[in-house]
Amino acid sequence: MAPPQRSPLRSPEPISQAASTPTRRSLLAGVAALGALGAAGCSRVATASSTEGGDLLGRLRAAGVVRLGIAGEIPFGFIDTNGELTGEAPELAKVIFKRLGIDRVQPVPTEFGSLIPGLNSQQFDVVAAGMYVNPERCEQVIFSDPDYQMLDAFIVRKGNPKGLRSYKDVVEKKAKFATGTGYAEIQYAVDAGYKESDILIVPDQVAGLNAVEAGRVDVFAGTALTTREVVKKSSKAESTEPFAPLVDGKPHVDGGAFAFRPTETKLRDAFNVELHKLKKSGELFRILKPFGFTKAEMTDLTAKELCGG
């Protein structure tokens, strides 16, 4: 799905919450199937309870189903060519919610920028889209601890002729720069001195790869995972080594997590308990590995750290 608004997002920027943050946008087959499932998932869930800590966990157990807000973004959460829900976040959700006594997950596809508004207007129960945790978002939702961490990387022409390995390089070498809609990489580039109006904004990493291969840009910035996956079959482009962008002058590592409504601390806390068990046992890596994640992307970061507190 990458993020940032001054503080890292998975693809944001200091623009609006909708545009802010990670959007590792929808790709390939996921997009086509979203429309069909979207209508089915539009009904609202029951309103939040005034019970301290929320009673959503109990209601979900009784119903036997939890609704997941996804953004159709490979590999974070999408509908595959068979019409099945998959991705790192949905597959992890299936395991954790099963352990919490909730047997079924139901996707509710939406635009990435609509995930937090949709969650807080109760269109679904939890955001399962690999969303980056950052202070701006932490003012609107509560997060589980991250299930992965992520660095940035570039898509460049084979051999990296301009030697682009950081946002500073992009600025100093006057490279033609592109990134995705709402990506955090927008702000990272701006913070490094790149003029925002000169950035080519494309829908996703596939479009970014195409732009690099066609010579329309010198570099496309995205998450290390999405860039390395999308160039695998390219004969003209490659992915650079992952690097940490600078935020306020310091190297920053993003972390992706599940988001919950602020009133539902009981559900978030129960989710965290199971998440940490999966981390300790190594099962978390086994769940995420098929989606291109490596051990370098496993993390002990906490939501508290990334929220700035």
UniProtKB/TrEMBL annotation:
<dbReference type="InterPro" id="IPR006311">
    <property type="entry name" value="TAT_signal"/>
</dbReference>
<dbReference type="Pfam" id="PF00497">
    <property type="entry name" value="SBP_bac_3"/>
</dbReference>
<keyword id="KW-0732">Signal</keyword>
<protein>
    <submittedName>
        <fullName>Polar amino acid transport system substrate-binding protein</fullName>
    </submittedName>
</protein>
<dbReference type="InterPro" id="IPR014337">
    <property type="entry name" value="Ectoine_EhuB"/>
</dbReference>
<dbReference type="InterPro" id="IPR001638">
    <property type="entry name" value="Solute-binding_3/MltF_N"/>
</dbReference>
<feature type="domain" description="Solute-binding protein family 3/N-terminal">
    <location>
        <begin position="65"/>
        <end position="295"/>
    </location>
</feature>
<feature type="region of interest" description="Disordered">
    <location>
        <begin position="1"/>
        <end position="22"/>
    </location>
</feature>
